[in-house]
Amino acid sequence: MSLIRLSAALATALLVGCFVEGCSTQPKPAPGAAAVQPDLTRKPAPDFTLKDADGKQVRLADYRGKVVLLDFWATWCGPCRIEIPWFTEMERKNKDKGFAVLGVSMDDEGWKVVKPFVGEMKINYRVLLGTDQAAHDYGGLDALPTTFLIDRDGKIASVHVGLTSRKDFEDGVEQLLQTPAKGSSGRISLPSLFVGPR
After folding, report:
1. Is 186 a domain residue?
2. Which pTM does this prediction carry?
3. What distance in Å separates the CA atoms of residue 168 and residue 111, rounded to the nearest whole number?
4. Residue span of the structural domain in which 54 resides
5. DSSP strand E in the chain: where?
6. Does the CA dihedral 165-166-169-172 come out positive or negative?
7. Is 191 domain-assigned?
8. What confidence tier does 148 reach under pLDDT thresholds 50, 70, 90?
9. Could you tell me if residue 187 is inside a domain?
10. Mind listing the pLDDT tens digit for each residue in 73-111?
11. What's the CA angle centered on 56, arms 52 and 61, to 5 degrees?
12. Is residue 104 part of a domain?
């Protein structure tokens, strides 16, 4: 995790330097930020089973059919603190539209630092404790935050590495919410067509 901490520390230092120098406070898309990819180029998001604050096991597969913003973050990550309130607002605004935020904490110290942070930041979405395996499955996480937008079919639609603009997230989420899951559009089950006696 030390490489992730170093990357986040450098990103925070650059951000603070930007504020001190007086440049724009609107974060620019990180080099790793990507627009929503065409459906045919999307790859399945690796499934995982991680525990939430109540010790319940949560699988990404349980969210199939929803648009998911999957955020890998840590309490010590400055850019993460900037993005988390945006995600809290997106969860509040879109949860009834088939949208969910999942925050995966990569803190080595575990729940003893994560639980107070969740309360302090008033996080209203599900927070899970990450593992080295989950980080590996999602490409090694060279920096935090690293955030994935996952479509209703469980495929990665975009990846944002480092601090990204709020508008990029909102635009991506809105686009994905307007697209139904492939398995749910215009299909009528055969039993519903049967009207005669059985």
Report:
1. no
2. 0.77
3. 30
4. 2-181
5. 43-44, 49-51, 57-59, 67-73, 99-105, 126-129, 146-150, 155-161
6. negative
7. no
8. very high
9. no
10. 999 999 999 999 999 999 999 999 999 999 999 999 999
11. 85
12. yes
